[in-house]
UniProtKB/TrEMBL annotation:
SUPFAM superfamilies: MFS general substrate transporter
GO BP annotations, alphabetical order: choline transport
One GO MF term: antiporter activity
Native species: Pundamilia nyererei
Membrane topology classification: Multi-pass membrane protein
Function: Choline transporter.
Name the record gives this protein: Choline transporter-like protein
Main location: membrane
Amino acid sequence: MAKKRQEEENPNSEYGELTSAVGVLRGSAFRCTDIICCILFLLVIIGYIVVGVLAWIYGDPRDILYARNSTGWFCGVGPNKDRPNLLYFDILKCATSVNVMASVLNGFQCPTTQVCVKECPSDFWAVKIQSYLPGEKPANVFNPNYCVPSLNLNSSNLVSYKWCLKESILVTLLVLGRCFPDITALGNIPLYFANVPGLPASVNDTVALIKNGTGFNAKDIATRIFADFASSWPWIILGLVIAMLVSLLFLLLLRFTAPVMVWVLIIGVLAAGAYGIWHCAWEYINYKQNSATITTIGFTTNFQSYLEVQETWLAFLIILCIVEGILLLTLIFLRTRILIAIALIQESSKAISYMMSTLLYPVVTFVLLVVCVAYWGATALYLATSGSPTYKVVALNSTMNDCSSIDGTKNCDPLNFTSSDYPNCPSASCIFINYNSTDTFRKNLQYLHIYNVVAFLWCVNFVIALGQCTLAGAFASYYWAFEKPSGIPMFPLFGGFIRSLRYHLGSLAFGALILTLVQIMRLILEYIDQKTRGSQNSCVRFILCCLKCCLWCLEKFIKFINRNAYIMIAIYGKNFCVSAKNAFQLLMRNVIRVVVLDKVTDLLLFFGKLMVVGGVGVLSFFFFSGRIKLPGSSFRSENLNYYWMPIITVALGSYLIAHGFFSVYNMCVDTLFLCFLEDLERNDGSAERPYFMSKGLMKILNKSNKIQKKQKAKD
């Protein structure tokens, strides 16, 4: 059947085509695929660039990067260039305000006066003198650094405290350009602050902790951690280099150690099961005289009592015997497929040793993903801050009867606004609310945000697809080289990258688009769940949970199909749908081999990651904790404040490095496996259609090339 299918699909295939640069590239190999999707993707990219330009023109990210005072001016920019920090006169109003202005402000501003200051207050009292006589000049009472800049302090009348800060809530701490109460300040906290009306109990508890001196200094901890990194960064880099070398060495040695490691791990699993059976039998015999049973114990949260019952160990014994029997039968009947999986793993290690540049490609993928994330973040930031600012007249103290007429709907100009326009409401102010949403750009802003997210997901999935197709092209060129390594083309990785971009851009974009649509459905479902969570009953929650699970499984399945479709695209150069169909049918015809290879590879790579991360992590622990000291080194572990921070950094970095290396290896195994299956179905070992698999694989399958037999006979 395989030969018949081969003749129907390509009756004129020749041996020379199989030895081309990328292997089995026939007919349509160097032809652009999925042109419509390619054009659509390029148009989306162009539109994405246009959206970014429009966001850059209309956006103003200073609202995120810089704080605004009550009049809408930025701190640290323009007239407030020397005053980069924002000070709240009454920070408690931000947390306790529940008046009508909460719905008007929409979370953009606190109903309290805010001024830009050079430095955050370091003392409780912000006035020069705490008691004053009537008629005292404001300049002699208030600190001009903590007053509204437009205020004339040389006036003969004492100004309202609304325009100048009388006292600071606490010694303030600078956080993201804002002056917030410093909860670590232990001195001179007024007693009346300990129980402020309207504050949640947790805040009062925090104040009590401060007064008792049990707070912690986050800034000091961050400073110490930064100092630890500054003194240990050369050794952290050395640890990451060691992780890279160990990962590389592990992959290269798999060509020699894979059989031993696989069989040792398999025997270890069987031995662990045998020990479990023996232990359960031993416990069963020990509790044989115990009169307690499951029925007499009943339901209890004390699980230890169940372990003292004979029936429990009997159930464990039966389960372990069944599992052990299944494993033994699987090992007996699938031993040939396990040998094939081991041979493919060895062949993958050999392929990587001939193309070491493939191990560096994850760096290219990482850089492209960083570019996508940075562009998406910058575009979202500019879109969120686009439009002209809107200012409205609000009453900072709306509880006053004379301020009831101010409802926060009247626009104002902060540069020309004066409180004298509202003599009956001295707390009236002109403050920034949000950005204007009446122009055409702002009316369609939500659609631009959606476009930004969709284009971002499509670009990210395309970058990943490009990496998979590039690596598949490189490894396929290795497999379909009849003479290895002399038959491998020059620069196989670069060739695979160029072919993917030049001929298969549309196919990669097509696969990425399908995955993007599934991810968008998951995002929409998550959004619906978040918006309706308060009104959901158990039935709705169950349905949403099932839908989430189904979409998650669908996404995993699409990723599996896409990955193998990209491999077939790299081999044959056909469009996405044909490649996905052929790959899926090929895998389903060899489903047992797929499962065995997948599990054996996962077992080896898991052991490899465990060895790399665990080994380097333990080594870094002994070094940074001072248990290992290098002679002549100036580094001293005693100088570290928190020695576990470098250890965590090295361990996390080692995992990322190992994951990057092993992802390339996993792609190599998958590519060679599909090539191997195609080789079995399309070739028969004759001179016209010889096998391209390694001699080890042919030996396992009892196959050989006739041309090789003739050559041996001549010799």
